[in-house]
User: Fold these one by one.
Assistant:
Number 1:
Amino acid sequence: MIKKLIFEHLAIPIKDLPLSLKFYRDILGLPTLERPKFDFDGAWLGLGDGLQLHLMVQDDFEVVSGTKLTHFAFTIEAVEHIQDLCETHNIEYIPIKTRSDGVRQIFIKDPNGWFVEFNSSVPFR
């Protein structure tokens, strides 16, 4: 039995590193982390609390799901801010909805076709 299991990172394939960095680093504000040398291009970004997003350049990949079924999510204070960013930067999104549990959420598409959710599920202090 594993005594302690800690989630560390999510790795996603991407096609265009500069475009992906513009999206995740420049628009969403994720900090770039030091990355060891590999035999493929990519970048590591910080998600807070020691969590990381690893972007891995893969020319011949296709997004597994072009729907919200395959996505990852961030909790933020104001989902409206994300909608404003989408409109400012011409990013595809599904408008804000309120779930039956009261959580507000918005889904956006990154430059590679991955869906990213932003929600208000955790109260901010």
Number 2:
Amino acid sequence: MATETSTRTFLAATSMIVALLVVVAVVLALRAPTQLDVATPQGTVQRYVQGVLDGDTDDAFDQLTNELADGCEPSELRHAAPDDARVVIVNADVGTDTARVDVRITETNGEGPFTGGGYTFEETFILEHQTDLWLIAEAPWPFYHCPEVRP
């Protein structure tokens, strides 16, 4: 009898802990991202990526240097990443006139918590400081997919 009671108590406690962890994971996953200061390279990258993912290509386009924007129209700015891509800034190396912002992109295949498909990779944005703004001079795939420069 004592062994049965101990086993039931252990299973009940384990189930409660697992349930609590699932609730915490769901709350963290649904939490809105912290908005970074757009006067920083990290904030510029965040605004650009959000614009591309949300389909606000005009706002995303405004984050590009003239040189990078010359090869593209806002309506052509599209991405190959799925809409549910998760982007995390993992490092920023900020100098006086240039910055490098490394991001980790996680793409998932399918919907639901048990899909298991997908992958994670890292890419880099290069920014230039121009007229009191940080602007993206080099944007990686899948967040910059404009046609080649037109003749």
Number 3:
Amino acid sequence: MRRFADGMQAVLERRAPGFGSRVRARTVQGPVELERDNPALVEGAVNGGSAAMHQQLLWRPVPGTGRADTPVDRLFLAGASAHPGGAVHGGPGANAARAALARAGAGGLLYRAGIGGLHRLLHGD
């Protein structure tokens, strides 16, 4: 891994002379190191699991939870396992923030009733 990172830095240095002298520190981690440091990153998957079709849109992380809202009032999904996934940096957090703001806003009770109804329809209760 370190040789690969050294090669990448050398390419950058050729294209942007002086780049290397601006690097103050560097950490190189491969899949093994990522999983060792965070067991949730299975095999180093920083995108929160599979990127296969069954883990996209309304199916991520499980069917019916393709939104940041959850059946638990004011609990929102914001991690890499939430839609649109870890490869869209900041996307899951932005979705959770929008949902939280909608829930806290003037129409929050109506919003909660609508989302709650959808969750009951999908998950039963």
Number 4:
Amino acid sequence: MDSKHETSIKRAVQRLFAKQRLACLATSGARQPHTSLVAFAATDDLEAILFATAKSSRKYVCLKANDRVSMLIDDRTNRITDFKKGTAVTVVGRAEELDTDRGNRYLKLYTKRHPYLEEFVESQQSSLFRIEVATYRLVTRFQQVEELHMRRRVGH
């Protein structure tokens, strides 16, 4: 893929991320897959995506058992026009639990995007995770699929 095309995909992903605050996170535990809504934030270079969860949640248990995850972010409106105008991005990567020291740059990025979640993410009962992104799959016009493989190679 040439750098111009790669830049075009990155811009499309960044535009979508700028408009959306929630994503569907897919994890897998010992028995079955699990999905849940999470508030997310992405780094400017798109190398990582952040989300927080309660340590008592099913997703936390799944993440500790299996760090492979995917995430769906889309702009659907629940109208027929979504088939021609909708955009969706699937993120594939590995999730890592982060130390949430006050000076942590990821914590700052996350709380800047979601200031209303600062108390939640900084509590002892919650944890901040970083997805190291391996691949973005951008879907537009219902069936046009483009992939962006990030420079750092992550198993997926």
